């Protein structure tokens, strides 16, 4: 029964649609054993830097100055624009030029400057990219436009980072610091996926169309474009699932922002004599002139997802998570019946459960565990007679053997996973007392967070084991329903001699 529970190599965030109105981008196919997505411009200095309001007096780079001048000439910057780029602890951010009230519009960017599938379709490579996944076509478009001197966005690309602190850019030595973590497996899986997609594009699109792609495109180029989309793309605007918005993508994340409704698509003036759809960004917090403006990237992302997508984590322990992968083994003699019950109740042969620190176990996890562990004399619940009611029975303890088995398997899996880390929580805490570089700080935070969640899971099922003798199981509940068992659990009348 060891296959009841397995350590997941990723997170189930890529297995469900994202609901964020900011940058939430699923670039991988549904079902990938990987993680799911506004940006990290340069690098995060430390775990605590996300909360600072400090804005540097250092001038922005010439590239940023040129970019800003271009936005002015194109009419994107107007008297209504209440922000400017500034050097901030995160690298580059948007700073208020005046006092700004909560929910006040701080910038608007016309649709003609958006980089999205529509921009690809209208370009010279639109025809050859028409059959590609949207993110692949936009990635190729970014690479091609970056190489063109006549690109509309030629002043935008120099502002973009060559890489972030996302784990997809880490060296082997840096990745060794997240040994044993789910984030390591996820990162390696993402890198393999991206490499495979690039090889396919080379063969099917790039090499057969050398007139459109006259310059060599490397895997590093493709990883750059992938990272830009993972970290900077907005989604779920009106009719928009993948869009990069120059200027708006400079805004940074803060844990102090607890709402996600800051980005809107509106119809409005896009120039002196033109109207267009505009990307409108509001400040979720009141901000003083000279302070940085922040938004919330995604309230539901774990620290591992933040590290993979943006290259930072939050010190908030509630962002720590671990994904349990539960599955129905094909060798199970009741495989077909269990799979039918699982699918009827919204699950499948494999189910992923994201468990967050200080949060209760996800809905459906315990019933699914009981279903997978079901066997022996409890297998009668799998009969067709119980098909419409079996899940409600699984919401409660089925039998002592069933409950004991699932507790033991989960606890053994937690113990095995904890043994895979090369440091203890105490050692991680000791390291955090020193000033760590950004990537090591991420690594320490991730592995410490995963271990705390595993310990929490183990503690939950340890407590369940201690309660096994006090629980009420199916047979006792059934006898009570029939009036054959007292409230104290005593069997009534002559029936006792048959039990």
Automatic annotation (TrEMBL):
Catalytic reaction list: [fructose-bisphosphate aldolase]-L-lysine + 3 S-adenosyl-L-methionine = [fructose-bisphosphate aldolase]-N(6),N(6),N(6)-trimethyl-L-lysine + 3 S-adenosyl-L-homocysteine + 3 H(+)
CDD domains, per database record: SET_RBCMT (cd19179)
Domain SET: 74-298
Pfam families: Rubis-subs-bind (PF09273)
Compartment(s) where it occurs, according to its Swiss-Prot or TrEMBL record: Plastid, Chloroplast
Record-listed S-adenosyl-L-methionine binding positions: 90-92, 232, 252-253
GO annotation terms (biological process): methylation
GO molecular function: [ribulose-bisphosphate carboxylase]-lysine N-methyltransferase activity; protein-lysine N-methyltransferase activity
PROSITE patterns assigned: SAM_MT127 (PS51583), SET (PS50280)
Gene3D superfamilies xrefs: Rubisco LSMT, substrate-binding domain, set domain protein methyltransferase, domain 1
Domain of life: Eukaryota
Keyword S-adenosyl-L-methionine belongs to the record: yes
Principal location class: plastid
Positions bound to substrate: 232, 236, 249, 264, 297, 310
Keywords tagged on the record: Chloroplast, Methyltransferase, Plastid, S-adenosyl-L-methionine, Transferase, Transit peptide
Protein name: [fructose-bisphosphate aldolase]-lysine N-methyltransferase
Organism: Arachis duranensis (Wild peanut)
